[in-house]
Amino acid sequence: MKKVILGTAGHIDHGKSSLVKALTGIDPDRLKEEKERGITLDLGFAYITYPDLVIGIVDVPGHERLIKNMLAGVGGIDMVMLVVAADEGVMPQTREHLAICNLLKIKSGLIALNKADLVDEETLELAKEDVKEAVKGTFLEYAEIIPVSAKSGFNIELLKEKIRELALKVEEKSKGGIFRMPIDRVFTLKGFGTVITGTVLSGSIRIDSPVVILPTGLNSKVRGLQSHGQTQKEVFAGQRVGMNLQGISKEDLKRGDVVTVPNKLGLTDYIEVKINLLNDATSLRHNAPVHFYLTTSETVGKVKLFEKNEIMPGETGFAHIKLQQPIVAMAKDRFIIRRFSPLETLGGGVILDPQPPRRKREILIEHLHVLDSDNLSECLEVKIKRRGIKGMTLYELEGWINADLSEIKKAIDRLLGAGKIVKAENHFFHSDAFQSFKSSVITLLEEFYQKNPLKEGLPKEELGALLAFHSKKQSAGALRLFDDSWKKLLEKINEIVVEGNVVKLKSAKKEEIKPEIEKKIIQELDKKEFQPPFRNELATLLNMPEEKLGDILKILAKQGKVVRINDSLYLSKNNYEKMLELLKKFYSQKNEMTVSEFRTLLNTSRKYAIEYLEYLDSNRITIRVGDVRKMVARGQ
Ligand SMILES: Nc1nc2c(ncn2[C@@H]2O[C@H](COP(=O)(O)OP(=O)(O)OP(=O)(O)O)[C@@H](O)[C@H]2O)c(=O)[nH]1
Ligand SMILES: [Mg+2]
Known about the structure:
Blueprint (H helix, E strand, L loop, with lengths): L1 E8 L6 H9 L7 H6 L6 E7 L2 E7 L7 H8 L4 E7 L6 H12 L4 E7 L6 H15 L9 E3 L8 H14 L10 E10 L3 E7 L4 E3 L3 E5 L3 E10 L2 E2 L2 E3 L3 E6 L12 E3 L7 E10 L6 E2 L3 E6 L2 E9 L4 E2 L4 E12 L6 E6 L5 E9 L11 H7 L4 H11 L5 E2 H7 L4 H13 L3 E4 L2 E4 H21 L6 E2 H14 L11 H6 L5 E4 L2 E4 L9 H13 L7 H8 L3 H13 L3 E5 L2 E4 H17 L2 E2 L1 H8 L3 H13 L3 E4 L2 E4 L5
Parallel strand pairs: 1-3, 1-4, 4-5, 5-6
Antiparallel strand pairs: 2-3, 7-8, 7-15, 8-14, 9-13, 10-11, 10-15, 11-12, 11-14, 16-21, 16-23, 17-20, 18-19, 18-22, 19-21, 22-23, 24-26, 25-26, 27-29, 28-29, 30-31, 32-34, 33-34
Helix pairs in contact: 8-10, 11-12, 18-19
Bound molecules: guanosine-5'-triphosphate (GTP) and magnesium ion.
């Protein structure tokens, strides 16, 4: 069954509540004070059920000082019934409510020209003309104007039928989105405990489901559900709902809080928006404080305009708003702003990005225009692009934009298919970010191999440090390394391989040691037996940079062609074996050996002898006991 929410709108005393009662039999003025004073103070609720349709009704107060309450109600409605008293015609709050609905992009509505019983034909016609003039250029420009009387019942059945026709045409809220219900009332009910009411903006929820209240973060469980006076097992977007919450007291909840499922939606106090100023508002300056209204919540914010210092009446502008209190906001949510003082409705707008980049240079006007468009794929593409190589998961995207999850998935598939984004593990990255990452990685690796031609590759952490340094030099900042997600992207680069922790460039031709150089090194090391040239001397002899020689010696040592005594001293394999033979022979005759005896044995200098002994000790071939060395027994 289709579920639609209708809201009333219009000037005080024009008969909004009376019409709701005439249509539904339910008096929306539920407070004692409302009944006594004959005016609506806070939101009232009712419903109409048709065989194929349920319409939840939110009745708002018309008093100019109660706009705040009106705003809490209007945030969740799909269509509006603008009520104008035929004897008074269009009045200030007729215009203000109309303007607010227009800014919130309410999809459709109709106009009830009430109190027809009080006027003659001619006055009724005049009132009609007055209304037509007022709705020009708004979403109600072509809406039906139906003369009615809540008092006499004139045309009430017709009105009811017209509401049905319109409701059947209106686009339903997204049942496939994340469950989100802003609270508009909190009370306790004997025998039940804490009950909240609200309009479900998206998704659905079942009894016994875990929920979280934001911004407080309190966890709870759905103990009971009601909609339009009936107990429900599950409720959906587009329904007015009463929810009984487990283990939470009334004091912990308030209007403006949002009930949602755990871990899906986040909080933000810094949003990127497009603001629309009303024609008859005063201008809005950079840094101006405003009252900010989103669904049932209200907070104060400071407007940071882009590109200009002031938005003029009737104009639009992009801005950031820094909010005093965190809110639950998604891209595409619509809001209203009012002047801080004196209180006056300034305009409203749409949230483009609830988690925008903070650096000015990362904000491109063309991106803002895309985020303002209705093209879901392009909006997601821009958002993913803005995340650079931090990337974004599907889970995060679902919580970012107010859209059906299946639509988001389809849009992502389209972007993947078109090569606009790439997927690595569960993260999506924009292909521009990927390309620039890829070319940085390749450049850095090429530079690395140039300096270290004999090395296998670069450890990931070192690559990360180089990338961070490299991206600082680039003004685009596309390569900011927020966390480890960039590592996921490495595997998407065909030109490289990651082996364990080492990143290698496939095309890097690892330099082979030239045979004649190898031969020469071994010859030089061999020549003077146990007094071979030290590394620096050898480098001079071979006319080769010492560092490069160092790399070659390490490789030759790994291949077993030379033996590394320490970083600056190598022995040829031949001579090393000769040394071991000599030692064996020595120890077959004696138990202990002094440094001097060793020096004589090898026919070398004391300097060399000590370096060899240190090597032999640390390799547990010999063991030092006081001033002498013993041979380590090898299990014989
Ligand atoms: N004669 C006549 N009186 C009406 C009609 N509809 C409402 N009234 C009277 O107008 C007064 C205001 O009606 P409400 O329904 O409270 O008006 P409202 O628009 O809800 O007012 P607020 O909620 O305070 O903005 C009441 O005294 C109603 O009895 C009508 O069709 N004809
Ligand atoms: Mg009322």
